[in-house]
């Protein structure tokens, strides 16, 4: 791995662990073992390095979300995505950045975070529409609203797990979301009466 990639990987991990505000260039250099000259050769500012690290974290997030867009049964894809293993006590690499005041106040740093969540939202909406079309969810559900709800459940689950230092609240939140989705199946008896 070249020094640039090592710096980006290190900044990515440090931002996930500590946030942007609490990560200094010195922290990055110490952990990566890359010298100051090399660091400033590749990145003229901490912000430039942070942008590259954010893009890396987003690149880690989006392939997982693309599981929602894959082939096969829409509800099976939803369940697989909700229940896939996650390190809840570490939080979401991308969502964590919304809690950092320096990221929130910097439109350039916040833009990739907003873009990533917008892309995930599109995937959620698409798979929820497929589930409605397949008769797996009631057709009176709004996929746009439900997508925001499911994203909020996951992000909120991370917050609860971190606050309690216990994976359990995260697992409960996503299992609860899945139970609500299962309860939102069309009732065949009602449909027959129409």
UniProtKB/TrEMBL annotation:
Residues of the DNA-binding region: 24-43
Annotated PROSITE patterns: HTH_TETR_2
PANTHER family in the cross-refs: HTH-TYPE TRANSCRIPTIONAL REGULATOR LMRA (PTHR47506:SF3), TRANSCRIPTIONAL REGULATORY PROTEIN (PTHR47506)
InterPro entries found in the cross-reference section: Homeodomain-like_sf (IPR009057), HTH_TetR (IPR001647), Tet_transcr_reg_TetR-rel_C_sf (IPR036271), TetR_C (IPR011075)
Keyword list, A-Z: DNA-binding, Transcription, Transcription regulation
Protein name: TetR family transcriptional regulator
Residue ranges of domain HTH tetR-type in the record: 1-61
Keyword NADP: no
Top-level division of the source organism's lineage: Bacteria
Pfam families: TetR_C_13, TetR_N
Taxonomic source organism: Asanoa ferruginea
Gene3D superfamilies associated with the record: Tetracycline Repressor, domain 2
GO molecular function, one term: DNA binding
């Amino acid at each position: 791995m070249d020094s640039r990639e090592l710096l980006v990987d290190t900044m990515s991990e440090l931002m996930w662990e500590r946030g942007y505000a609490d990560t200094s260039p010195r922290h990055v250099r110490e952990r990566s073992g890359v010298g100051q000259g090399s660091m400033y050769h590749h990145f003229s500012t901490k912000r430039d390095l942070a942008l590259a690290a954010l893009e890396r974290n987003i690149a880690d997030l989006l392939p997982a979300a693309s599981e929602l867009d894959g082939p096969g049964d829409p509800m099976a894809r939803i369940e697989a995505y909700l229940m896939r293993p996650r390190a809840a006590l570490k939080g979401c690499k991308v969502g964590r950045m919304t809690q950092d005041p320096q990221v929130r106040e910097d439109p350039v740093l916040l833009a990739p975070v907003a873009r990533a969540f917008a892309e995930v939202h599109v995937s959620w909406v698409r798979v929820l529409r497929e589930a409605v079309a397949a008769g797996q969810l009631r057709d009176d559900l709004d996929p746009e609203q439900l997508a925001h709800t499911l994203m909020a459940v996951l992000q909120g689950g991370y917050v609860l797990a971190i606050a309690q230092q216990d994976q359990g609240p995260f697992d409960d939140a996503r299992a609860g979301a899945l139970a609500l989705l299962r309860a939102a199946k069309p009732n065949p008896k009602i449909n027959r009466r129409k």
